[in-house]
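User
Class, as today's exercise, I want you to study this protein, comparing sequence with structure tokens, and judge whether sequence predicts the tokens.
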Amino acid sequence: MKLRLIVFISSLFALASFSEAAKVEQVWQLDGHEQAQGDFFNKSIKRLAALPGFQCHFDQLMVFTDGGGQRYSGEVSVLKPERFRWQYDQPYEQLYVGDGDSIWHYEPDLMQAERLDNLESVDPAVMKLLDGSIKPTDIELLSRQDSAELGIRRYQVSIQGSDPVWLGFSKVGDLVLIEREDLLGNRNRMSLSKCSYIAPAENLFSFTPPAGVDVLDMRSAPEQ
């Protein structure tokens, strides 16, 4: 189970750029075309920030440097501020629920639930963007690349000084793709689909361990 948790923390929105993304150069001169693209990006980010919450299906593909790979899929729900629910259906069931104060991690096949410390335990840069923890002004635009194959506009950004992340938006400005490569060269891509932009019900972000489940409190001891 610890291995699963480590993989999750390292992969959650640590999503990979493919090789062509590394070849993109900075192109944000302020001519008319590029300024228009910048306006599209800014409007899309502000639209995302203004949402009270959303629910989406996700498909995640990880490609490891040793040649291996792994696919994941499930449902993600976000209710601002700082509440989220990740329901993994494939390749095995697991659940992460954050209520704004603590995080539960539950794996039914192991009959075990962990209570984690806080959002920072599993909250990389992109998660902060999605759950409303940061403002659009904290995002630095680095470069842009359109994908004719996927029909999206891709933007390389740094979020509060993070390593570069690629965000992909549909033609109407919906976030549909997140990509990144980690320090070990592992590549990862998450696609969002079937999204509802109505705020989910608050009770979706609470969790009570089922009877008979082992509960581990992984929270840090309070400072004396």
In short: The chain has one domain: 26-217. The first strand starts at residue 53 and ends at 63. Residues 32-50 form the longest helix (19 residues). Residues 83 and 126 are 14 Å apart (CA to CA).
